[in-house]
Structures are given as structure tokens and as C-alpha cells.
Amino acid sequence: MNSLIELIPELNQAFFETLLMVGIALAIAILLGLPLGILLYVTDQGLFLENKFIKRVVGIIINLIRSVPFIILLVFLLPLTQLLVNTTIGPLAASVSLSVAAIPYYARIVESSAREIDKGVIEAAVACGASPWLIIRSIILPEAKPGLITGLTITAISLIGYSAMAGTIGGGGIGDLAIRYGYYRYDNTVMFTTVILLIVIVQFVQYLGDFIAKTVNRR
Amino acid sequence: MILLENITKKFQTKSNVIVGVDDVTLSINKGEIYGIVGYSGAGKSTLLRCMNILERPSSGSVKIDGTDLLQLSNKDLRKARQSIGMIFQGFHLISSKTVFENVAFALKAAGIEKKAITKSVEELLEIVGLKDRINQFPAQLSGGQKQRVSIARALANNPKVLLCDEATSALDPGTTKSILTLLKRINQELGLTIVIITHEMEVVKEICHRCAVMQDGKVVEQGKTYDIFSNPQQPLTKTFIQTVLNFDLPPKLLQTIHGQLIKLQFCGDMAAEAVVSDMLQTFEVQGNILHGKIEYIQDTPLGIFIMEIKGEKQELDNALTYLRQRVNKVEVIVA
């Protein structure tokens, strides 16, 4: 018990570090993964911006990143991390590789939730003479919104898992704490505490995601 | 208004090329309601989708009001599409948006200002009779109401043409009728040219001024609806007409017939009963009407009667000659 109380400041710091790196990665995923996913969708065959070349090139790049195991990606991206944030340790550094992993991950989820939209609705919009931008803004995004939010939840939870791996190479966060105390020092109490903390976070994220998805569903 | 010239649409599949529309030339006049009928797979839907380039024809030209749509840039094509409304069998409304927002979408597409949009949407919903549903979502509406919303959306930018892709096929007969009445009213009040794709001859009979019958990607027959109904040429057309004008007699009844079985067709305002009773009085024949119907094809009656006539051979021949002079079409079914 005493050791737990002693741990609180460190646990607290770890918690915010995790929050920071996952938060940054999620924000980047929305900022870049979302448009990329939409791009993949609208360049699909039979859609209003059909473009085999773009579709294929973007698809290949995404698959390329997604096929690299995250732990390898971490190491591989160290030079880029150094370039961007001027360091390779700490949560900010970890958020670089987390973001790189999150972008294609979320892009694919966006693409598949956009595919759920009734093609006829998009066709009706094309028949109205709507511009591609208007169709994306007024039809694809609102119609896919519940799926986009559920997808963001899935991405967030995966990122929490990934962040533990980032911890192993000095990224900080809860995962890092678990490995340092639990694995290297055989301190089961700390390990269990961090695991429980992770479970609580994941449950909370899932609950929050489901709740928001339900709220925005206007049908 | 709509001029299609030598439209061919081919679809490339993995193994072969499918010809959806095969060299169709069609001219649709301003202000008319034009029906295109055919079984599914006949290419009628593809042909309709060529009219606003939802489907780009492999060859041929599509002219709407003198503009060749295939020559337009993407931007100009979008502009042109704003004056071509379209409604679908599946309504295709945005499920996450209200009735108001769905109609407003079309106006937004045309770059109309927000203030003007609110006013226009209200007017449009007034036309289709759904003003009280303005804030509801599509899921809360019935099929007929959804189609009304999509009609309002299609009319949003004062189009010159309205394309209807099986617009009533998903609706029950009563709702179909009310939607057709609405389309007819729009046609008369706004002078809109309407093209209707359907497999229901009933729809054509109800509102189309002219129609075309399609089979295997080709137009096999076209003309005024009344002429098509009263004098179909192609076997397929006859089959379609039969869905509305069916005069098959029960086999049991046919066995009891001893005289001649004839089919009389009256077009327009001919007094059918008078002709028949004149014939019976003038000649020594007995007549018995077995089946008959007067169908009104857009207010012009088309009467068809099936009669059994009995008598001496000479009298029967005379009676038939007499009928042939007074009636549009006499057909001896069983001599």
C-alpha cells in the first residue's frame, strides 16, 4: 500500500504523458487520416472523383505503413522524430510515431465507414449538380458520422496499446511505468495498478465513444 | 427539349462487354410527359441516366435545350444538372438530415443564399404538400412522403426537365396514384418536361403523352400513348398492353361458345352500345357481350368488347362487314 502511495506522483505524470501522446496522435489522425480516408473513398470506382491512380498510390502508401510492426516503426522513425521535435525521448517524441501509425489506421476506418453510405444518396447529390466539396461536407461526413466516431474510439484504444510500446524506447506514459517497475523490477503491485488504470481508461474511452456516436446519430 | 442521338452505352466486365443501350435516338418535346417502358435489364434506366450524364454514353450525343451535355466541362455540367431534376425508386434522401435540409441541399448546390433558401424550401414543400413535416427526418416519413420530399428537392432549382427513375415502383397503388397526380400537376402548372422510366403500363396510361418501349437496349416501338394502347405493333408492346387491357376469357366459358367470337375496339368518342344495338337490329344475328371495358387513356376513351355472335353464315358476314365500317378494329377470335 505504501509503495502505491509513493507511486502516485509518478502514476499521475505517466497518466498525463499517455494522455498527451495519444491525444496528439488522435488529433493528427483526424487532421490527416480523415481527409485521406475520404480521398480513398471518393476516388473509388463509380464515385464522383473516380481516380485509379490516386486511389492506388494512396492505398499502397497506407498499406506500407500499416504492414510495419509498430515497434519497428518506432525505431525506423527515430530520425524523423529527431528532426521534428528535436529529441527522441519523452511523450512528444513518442507522439510522432504514434501519429504516423494512427493516420493510415484511421484512414482505412474512415474509408470503410464512408462505404456504408447508400451510394444512391451520393448519386442523387451528383444529379443535383452539387460540387464534390459540398457532397463531402453535407452528405459523406454527416452520413458517416456515427461510424467515424466509433472508428475514432477504436483508433484511440489501439493507440493506448501502442503507447505502451512507445514507452519501451523512452516514450514515457503508463505503459512505460508498467514495464519499468513491473517487468524490470518485478514489482507486481505497480504492474497491476498500471494495468488496472489502463483497463479503466480503455473502458472510459469506449463508453465515451459509444455515447457520442449515439448522440450524433440523428436518424 | 431532350434530344438523344445514337446513344450507345457499353459496360466493360471482366470477361466481356455488355451493351446496355444500343444506338438509341429519341426526341422528347418541351412540356411533355414521356414514358419509357421495358422489363428490367432492357436498358431504360441506363438510357435515363445518360440524360444527365450520371452514366456517360460510350458514343452519341445528349442535347438538353440545345446544349450538348457531353461537351461541357465538369463545372458547366454541374450547372446544367441543376436544371435537370431527378427522382429515384429508392428516394435517396440524406438520412441524417431533416426534410428541410434535404431540400435545402439542392439549393445550396446551386449556390443560393441562406435567406432565400428558407423561403424557397417552404414554397417547395407547399407544392408537394409536406409543409407540416419540415423538421422531420426521412425515417419518420412514409414512402409516398419520402418521394414527395425528393420531388421537392428535384424541383428546387426550377428545372426544365424532371427525370423519374422508377419513381413509383416502390409505392403502393394508392400512393402511386397520388404521386402521379402530383407529377401531372407539376407538368401542367410549371410546364416541366418529364421523363418517366417504368415497368408499369398503368403509369404510362395514367400520365404519359408519348412513350417508348425498350428491349435489349433498343427502342422497339414509340408513339403517342393512345396509339400504342389502341394499336400496338411489337409482341413486347402487346404483352405490356395486356397488363392493363387483359381480355382473356376463362377456358370454361370458351367451351360453351358456339358462335363467332369477335373483339371490337372503339377509339375516341364512338358510342359503342349504339353501334352494337344497331348491328343487332339490322341483321338477323344474336349477340352476347362476354367481356368489355372502356379504358380512359388520359381522358380519351378506348373501348374494347368481346362478343359472341350467332346466326346464318351470310348474316354473320354482313354483320361483320357492317361492324368493320363503324368500328375501329374488328378481330375475329374464334370463327
UniProtKB/TrEMBL annotation, chain A:
One Gene Ontology biological process: D-methionine transmembrane transport
Pfam families: BPD_transp_1 (PF00528)
Primary residence: membrane
Ranges of residues in domain ABC transmembrane type-1: 15-209
Keywords associated with the record: Cell membrane, Membrane, Transmembrane, Transmembrane helix, Transport
Segments crossing the lipid bilayer: 20-41, 53-77, 89-107, 147-169, 189-209
Domain of life: Bacteria
GO CC, alphabetical: plasma membrane
Annotated compartments: Cell membrane
Membrane topology reported for the UniProt record: Multi-pass membrane protein
Family from the record: Belongs to the binding-protein-dependent transport system permease family. CysTW subfamily.
Protein name: ABC transporter permease
Source organism (scientific name): Peribacillus psychrosaccharolyticus (Bacillus psychrosaccharolyticus)
From TrEMBL, chain B:
Keywords of this entry: Amino-acid transport, ATP-binding, Cell membrane, Membrane, Nucleotide-binding, Translocase, Transport
Example GO molecular function: ATP binding
Limits of the ABC transporter domain: 2-241
Keyword Membrane: yes
Matching PROSITE patterns: ABC_TRANSPORTER_1, ABC_TRANSPORTER_2
A Pfam family per the record: NIL
Key word Magnesium present: no
Gene Ontology cellular-component annotations: plasma membrane
Gene Ontology annotations of biological process type: amino acid transport
Family: Belongs to the ABC transporter superfamily.
Listed name of the protein: Methionine ABC transporter ATP-binding protein
The organism's taxonomic lineage, starting at the top: Bacteria, Bacillati, Bacillota, Bacilli, Bacillales
